[in-house]
Amino acid sequence: QVQLVESGGGLVQAGGSLRLSCAASGRTSSTYTMGWFRQAPGKERDFILSINWSTGSTYYADSVKGRFTISRDNAKNTVYLQMNSLKPEDTAVYYCAARYGGGYFSRTTSYPYWGQGTQVTVSS
To answer: What pLDDT score was predicted for residue 90?
Structure first.
Protein backbone atom coordinates (compact mmCIF):
# COMPACT_ATOMS: atom_id res chain seq x y z
CA GLN A 1 0.00 0.00 0.00
CA VAL A 2 1.05 3.54 -0.73
CA GLN A 3 -0.40 6.54 1.06
CA LEU A 4 -0.41 9.93 -0.65
CA VAL A 5 -1.01 13.30 0.95
CA GLU A 6 -1.33 16.45 -1.14
CA SER A 7 -0.87 20.00 0.03
CA GLY A 8 -0.43 23.49 -1.37
CA GLY A 9 -3.76 24.27 -3.00
CA GLY A 10 -5.51 27.59 -2.62
CA LEU A 11 -6.83 30.69 -4.32
CA VAL A 12 -4.67 32.58 -6.78
CA GLN A 13 -5.23 35.27 -9.38
CA ALA A 14 -4.89 34.55 -13.07
CA GLY A 15 -1.26 34.71 -14.11
CA GLY A 16 -0.08 33.66 -10.68
CA SER A 17 1.71 30.53 -9.49
CA LEU A 18 1.18 27.73 -7.01
CA ARG A 19 3.20 24.71 -6.00
CA LEU A 20 1.48 21.53 -4.94
CA SER A 21 3.20 18.79 -3.00
CA CYS A 22 2.42 15.11 -2.73
CA ALA A 23 4.15 13.11 -0.04
CA ALA A 24 4.22 9.35 -0.42
CA SER A 25 4.57 6.83 2.39
CA GLY A 26 4.11 3.13 2.89
CA ARG A 27 5.42 0.63 0.37
CA THR A 28 7.07 3.11 -1.91
CA SER A 29 9.39 1.82 -4.55
CA SER A 30 12.18 3.11 -6.72
CA THR A 31 10.32 1.78 -9.74
CA TYR A 32 7.02 3.48 -9.62
CA THR A 33 5.22 6.30 -11.37
CA MET A 34 3.53 9.27 -9.80
CA GLY A 35 1.02 11.32 -11.67
CA TRP A 36 -1.09 14.41 -11.24
CA PHE A 37 -4.69 14.64 -12.35
CA ARG A 38 -7.34 17.30 -11.99
CA GLN A 39 -11.09 17.35 -11.93
CA ALA A 40 -13.21 20.41 -12.56
CA PRO A 41 -16.86 20.49 -11.42
CA GLY A 42 -19.03 18.36 -13.66
CA LYS A 43 -16.08 17.05 -15.64
CA GLU A 44 -14.01 13.92 -15.73
CA ARG A 45 -10.71 13.55 -13.94
CA ASP A 46 -8.00 14.37 -16.45
CA PHE A 47 -4.35 13.47 -16.63
CA ILE A 48 -1.94 16.41 -16.33
CA LEU A 49 1.54 14.97 -16.01
CA SER A 50 3.54 12.14 -14.51
CA ILE A 51 7.06 11.24 -13.52
CA ASN A 52 8.93 7.96 -13.49
CA TRP A 53 10.47 7.83 -10.04
CA SER A 54 13.66 6.01 -10.98
CA THR A 55 14.49 7.60 -14.33
CA GLY A 56 12.93 11.02 -13.86
CA SER A 57 11.19 10.76 -17.22
CA THR A 58 8.20 13.06 -17.40
CA TYR A 59 5.04 13.18 -19.48
CA TYR A 60 2.83 16.23 -19.91
CA ALA A 61 -0.65 16.84 -21.23
CA ASP A 62 -0.72 19.43 -23.99
CA SER A 63 -2.93 21.70 -21.92
CA VAL A 64 -0.19 22.34 -19.37
CA LYS A 65 3.01 22.12 -21.38
CA GLY A 66 5.18 25.16 -20.84
CA ARG A 67 3.26 26.20 -17.72
CA PHE A 68 3.37 23.24 -15.32
CA THR A 69 6.40 21.30 -14.17
CA ILE A 70 6.67 18.10 -12.18
CA SER A 71 9.69 17.28 -10.06
CA ARG A 72 10.61 14.94 -7.23
CA ASP A 73 12.65 14.83 -4.05
CA ASN A 74 13.81 11.28 -3.56
CA ALA A 75 14.93 11.82 0.02
CA LYS A 76 11.51 13.13 1.03
CA ASN A 77 9.48 10.76 -1.17
CA THR A 78 7.69 13.84 -2.40
CA VAL A 79 6.63 14.97 -5.84
CA TYR A 80 5.91 18.58 -6.68
CA LEU A 81 3.67 20.25 -9.21
CA GLN A 82 4.80 23.76 -10.03
CA MET A 83 2.03 25.68 -11.77
CA ASN A 84 2.82 28.97 -13.46
CA SER A 85 0.77 31.36 -15.60
CA LEU A 86 -2.40 29.98 -14.09
CA LYS A 87 -5.69 30.49 -15.89
CA PRO A 88 -9.28 30.39 -14.61
CA GLU A 89 -9.75 27.16 -16.56
CA ASP A 90 -7.10 25.56 -14.35
CA THR A 91 -9.57 25.70 -11.47
CA ALA A 92 -10.12 22.14 -10.26
CA VAL A 93 -9.42 19.66 -7.53
CA TYR A 94 -5.91 18.34 -8.08
CA TYR A 95 -5.04 14.76 -7.22
CA CYS A 96 -1.77 12.93 -7.10
CA ALA A 97 -1.71 9.24 -7.87
CA ALA A 98 0.82 6.42 -7.82
CA ARG A 99 1.35 3.02 -9.34
CA TYR A 100 4.15 0.50 -9.39
CA GLY A 101 6.10 0.29 -12.61
CA GLY A 102 7.51 2.91 -14.92
CA GLY A 103 6.09 4.16 -18.19
CA TYR A 104 3.47 6.48 -19.58
CA PHE A 105 0.13 6.09 -17.81
CA SER A 106 -2.60 8.66 -18.39
CA ARG A 107 -5.72 6.76 -17.42
CA THR A 108 -7.16 7.03 -13.94
CA THR A 109 -7.66 3.28 -13.95
CA SER A 110 -3.90 2.78 -14.26
CA TYR A 111 -3.32 4.20 -10.78
CA PRO A 112 -4.45 2.22 -7.73
CA TYR A 113 -3.30 4.78 -5.15
CA TRP A 114 -4.73 8.27 -4.80
CA GLY A 115 -4.42 11.26 -2.54
CA GLN A 116 -7.40 13.08 -1.10
CA GLY A 117 -7.16 15.99 -3.53
CA THR A 118 -6.50 19.67 -3.03
CA GLN A 119 -8.57 22.55 -4.38
CA VAL A 120 -6.99 25.08 -6.73
CA THR A 121 -9.07 28.12 -7.62
CA VAL A 122 -7.86 30.68 -10.15
CA SER A 123 -9.75 33.96 -10.20
CA SER A 124 -9.96 36.16 -13.28
So the answer is: 96
